[in-house]
Amino acid sequence: MHLTSKEERILKGEEGFGRQKAIELLVALGDIYGAKRLVPISSAQVSGASFKTVGDAGIKFIEDFSSEAHVSVRASVNPLGMDVLRWRSMGIDERFKEKQMRIVRAYASMGLEPLYSCTPYLAGNRPRAGQHIAWAESSATVFANSVLGALTNREGGPSALAAAVIGKTAEYGLHLIENRLPSVQIDVESIPQGSVPLLGYVVGRIAGNRIPYITNLTLTNDEHKSFGAAMAATSAVSMYLYGRPGVRSKIDTSRIEECVSLPESELKECQDSLSGDDSWDLVAIGCPHCSTQELRRMARTLDGKRPRKDCNVWFCTSRKAYANAPDAVKTLKRFGKVLCDTCMVVAPIEKMFKRTASDSGKAMVYLPTLGKQRATFRTTDQLLEAISR
Ligand code: F3S
């Protein structure tokens, strides 16, 4: 891999131990994947911020690294294991909170932005088309590549942090235009109401490790958010391309090796398989984090209704969306907790609940594994109906 003279100096340790360790990691990754050079990035997004997922070893790594390094580009942090302000009302204990706050302080001392959201693109860290970035959160990388037109691989937490420190990442994978072409075409017949997350879930399974080109797809940005999150959860790919009905596509389809029809019946079968019964301890909405528009839409639906007292509800969102929609938040708080900085997967939900219903395709993958939950899928409207009377 070719390094500039400045990069060579960093590698020799002439700019400090932290920057040396960071560039060593980037060069090692570049060598593994055959990168020819490092490319400058406009932003980074770092995962591995919840004490639940990183544990004591993670805290030690982050604290040690933070004493030696500082970020050199805009960089934000993925959700934590708790709402920094309402941790007690979530049921988080003192020990967890103390450990979590050590991670918060370590990242802050490195200069990372405390967004604590998987939707940085809605909370101020929004790259432009054509910009190279180094993002770690899978749902955010797929949105950045597919909707915003930025270029990023699905980074690991340490490699995104290293990229944030150096301001560059190794140029391989989705940073190269020739690797951003689809190799499987998926023709979507139609999408039942509220089933976009399931479409992502099924498309991911079909795609596997191939970039899919989905025809006949008209989604809002919020729908792209939940579609991509589910697709990235059931596949290894961090990008999709799509064509709108009746619009001539300019997408290069020369590498497509398989065309698959996706009938509506397959989405219904998927829904049946994830539907379970109506018994749950928690209704969790906001995976990925709810946007301002989603908070407002849910509040409108619930306006004038009364909450069911026997139902725990979490609405997970970013602090930015929370601040943008005070009236909606006020309405939603009558029905449950509106939590920032965290989510149903990276919070220690397994210590509080056993059965969780959600409207998220991604949550259907991770609630049973990371959260040890019996997970049930319902559409957003079905959940709002279930929590109100
Ligand atoms: Fe975000 Fe947590 Fe889902 S990080 S995408 S809300 S699993």
Which residues sit in consecutive blocks of at least 5 with pLDDT less than 50?
none
The proportion of residues in beta strands is: 15-25%
The CATH class designation of the largest domain is: Alpha Beta
Largest sheet, order of strands side by side? 12-11-10-13-14
So, CATH architecture of the largest domain? 2-Layer Sandwich
Number of helices: 15
Strand count, sense and barrel status of the largest sheet are: 5 strands, parallel
Beginning-to-end CA distance, first to last residue: 62 Å
Please provide a written account of the structure.
The strands form 4 sheets. The protein has a 5-stranded parallel sheet with strand order 12-11-10-13-14. Strands 8-7-6-9 form a 4-stranded parallel sheet. Strands 3-2-4 form a 3-stranded parallel sheet. 51% of the residues are buried. It folds into 3 domains: 5-177, Aconitase, domain 3; 181-272, Aconitase, Domain 2 (3-Layer(aba) Sandwich), CATH 3.40.1060.10; 275-386, Aconitase, domain 3 (2-Layer Sandwich). The protein has helices at residues 5-11, 17-33, 51-66, 87-90, 94-109, 138-148, 157-166, 196-207, 221-234, 264-275, 292-302, 319-324, 326-333, 361-369, 380-386, and strands at 38-40, 43-46, 74-77, 133-135, 168-170, 184-188, 212-215, 241-242, 258-262, 282-290, 312-317, 337-340, 355-358, 374-377. It is 41% helix and 15% strand. Bound molecules: FE3-S4 cluster.
